[in-house]
Amino acid sequence: MKQRVVFCAIAILFTGAIFIVAKGFLRNKADTDVPVKSMSTWQQAGAPLGYPLREGASTISEFDPRFIQLDAFERVTLPTISATSAPMGSENGALTYNAQVFWANNPKRGGHHTGDDFNGIGGMNTDLGDPLYAIANGRVIYRGEPSPGWGNTLILAHRTPEGSTLLTMYAHMDQMHVALGSTIPMGQIIGTVGNAHSRYPAHLHLEIHDSTGIHIGAGYTSKPGDRIDPSHIIAQYQNARLSPSIFNLVLIDQQKNKQGTMTIKNSMN
What we know:
By secondary structure, the protein is an alpha+beta fold. It contains five helices and 13 strands.
């Protein structure tokens, strides 16, 4: 009896080992078709993460912005949120309403809304071309058009007083007035309200991500992921005083000093 049990156990182990080896062989064979970073050329060897390469390709593929990740140094050097203000309507955020709040359920569009839709009080396209303001001190880490549905899009990164990183995404814009990598103070005009090339009535779709990396997903989803309520964040750090950003005053003063230095050099020449 004991011998039979031992023989059965050995047979089961042997069969399991064969199954594992066969599964591993088939998986490795399938993985050869997956684009991976290659070391065959110096261009491919130097390609950062996020640049998957097609088999036999000799050049780097088009970069996918969803792979952008802020490193530790970039995160600690981000401008800190000292206060927040509303993103549109006027410099003090008046004359707007939230047409579709964060996480509102919209079955026709495929799930819950991933941000806030801010509109001018006139509705439809009456706010087309109105200015958009940075809700807080930050840095532009994305500037482009991730898809026709999103239209012109800006993403600003911010450091909270608690030390974490927040990303604010402004979508459906008409014009974008700030450059990639530029440092932006709260209240600066960063662009204008758009309609994603006439796909929707003009409005701002504002998202906030509690993340150190860019993920531009769908505007409606079943799970929030790293998205958080924009109105809650704006209210959490909002400054009730209608005073200019101290950070903005410092940047203006630095710009004046640079202009003064250039004027002196030109006069000497």
